Structures are given as C-alpha cells and as structure tokens.
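Hello,

I think I submitted the manganese (II) ion job twice by accident. Can you confirm which output corresponds to this input? Input:
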Amino acid sequence: MINDQHPEFFKAFSELINQRQKINTPILITAHQNPDGDAVGSALGLHWYFKRLGISSVVMMPNSYPKFLDWMPGSKDIVIYENTPEKGKAAVEAAEYMFILDYNDLSRAGNELCDVIGRSKAVKFMIDHHVAPSNCARYIYSDAKQPSTAQMVMLLLMELNSHELLGKDGAACLFTGIITDTGSFRFPLVTAETFRITAALFDLGIDHSAIYAHVYDSYDERRFRLLGYMLAQMEVLGDAGVSVLYLTKEQQQKEQMKKGDTEGFVNYGLNLKGAKVAAFFREDEDFTRISFRSKGQIDMNVFARAHFNGGGHVNAAGGSSYDSLQDTLTRFKELIVPYVQIA
Ligand SMILES: [Mn+2]
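Support: Only one job matched these inputs. Its output is below.
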C-alpha cells in the first residue's frame, strides 16, 4: 500500500484532491525529455483523472512526443516547451502544484526547462520508477520495482477508490504507458499486480486492440528501411551473448529519418537466441546516442553510468558518447564482454 510505504506522499495527494476548491491555478503535469509512452500516458492519465474531479491541469513535455502517441486523448493540448517556451514558462510560474512523472531528477527535463522548474515555488509531487531519485520534489512516490509510472498512477487512484474517474480516455492513456514500458507485459518487473490493474483498466472500457494497433502497427516505409540497414549490419559477440546494433549518420540522412523512427529498435537485439545484452548506437550530429537492454541480472544502469554518461533501469538504460561511432563501438565491445562474464 502506498499509504504504508509513502505515507507523506499519500497524505499530501489525498489532501490536494480533497481540498481541490482551494487550488487557484492549473496543476502542471510534466514528464521527461524525449517522452515515451509511459511519460505521455501517465501524464495524460492523471490529467483525465483531475479533469473529472473538476481540477484543471496542464500537461507539459520538454520536447515533442513520438507520432505513434498522437491519437491519445488529450495529446493535442500538451504544451511542448521546446516549441513554445514562453507559454511553458508562464505555466510553470503560475503553477501552485506540479507533478514530476516518470523522471526523478530535474536534469531529465532538459537543459532549459530544468532551470525553470528548479526556480518554481510550486509544491512538487514526484511519481517515478527509476533508480536513485534526487530530492527535487516535496512529496516523493518513487519505487524502482514498479514496471511503469502508469502502473503507479493507477495504484494510487485505486487505493483512493477513485480510479473509475479516469474514464475510458484516462484508462487508455495508462494502458499505453503500461504496455510500452513492459514490452507488452514481458519484462521482469511485471507482476500479478500489473495484470490486476490492467483488468481494472479493461473494466473502464478500453479498446486494447485499437490501442495496440495505434502503438505497434504505425511504421512508415522509412522505418522499415532503417530497420533493414540496422539488422543487416548487426554484430554478434556470440560467446558473450551480446548483439551490437547501429545506424550511421549517412544512413539516417539517406532515409530522412525523423524523430521516433528508431524507437524500440534496440529490442530486436534481444530477439537473438542466447542474447543477454543488446545495444543500439545511433550516430547523431556530434555524438552518438546509445540504448542498452539486458536480460536477468546484468545491470545496464550501472554500466551506462560508469562508461557512457547515462543511466536508467537494470534491464533498460541509455547513454551517449562523444567519440566517433567506430571508436564508441570498439570501446563498448571491449567493456561489455568482461562485464557480462562477471554478472
Ligand atoms: Mn517509465
């Protein structure tokens, strides 16, 4: 129960909604940079809940979300800070209450917005499932054992016996967060509880097949071609169970790659029989973005923090490198083989 494990958070959240008449400005709901299905889903889910309680709220993301999420109810009204910084700043400055969803350190809101949020006097509530939360919120509900922030939002509302207020729209948003952060219920952190809360979302009338089609059957041709390059040049460190995936800058330019096109590409590496670790390197203008995935106990959060300026979860982390793509790949291969062996 959240009331037992995070009593301060639970009490403050309960008071907030019980005394909602006293809130004078829209509650600001924020999530991390490069928002994914869980960031957008948990934020919009909470937004729908507030709406049906008569609480006005604004959802703001540091930059735009991937196109496969633009069907989500309420997504059109999301403030994208990068596109409209003045509007974003005004929303932060006006807010008396702010939610920090699916991130646990202000740096994850991006260079500019993190300062703006840092200066805000709003009372901040954090709901997040990443490891090692910083002390950037007044009330913190942080649990790295939870498979998604959307699940945490649902648990909170269920404990308050008020999740039915989500309605079909809010439920669809939370369901999207759950499936995208769990690889459709297959990642290790999924528990019976995940299925119980998902059942409660079904009871609210979600059309799960339609949601799956929106999220997974949304590739355009460009994405297939990029995927083709990446798979054709996959390197396998067979003995170590590591698959190395990458796309060069030239390949991305040739296909006029757009943001979000390579979302989920790293997961293909784990489809290889015997693979324990997959890494995907995307060469950018002056650096390389890296995604790490692993199975079992191999801790990619620790690995990414130690070697590639990143972090995340045990089985899913990210990082970056300012060396050339080739040097980065070489360095990764040298580091990962002994790392897998000792794990
Ligand atoms: Mn998440």
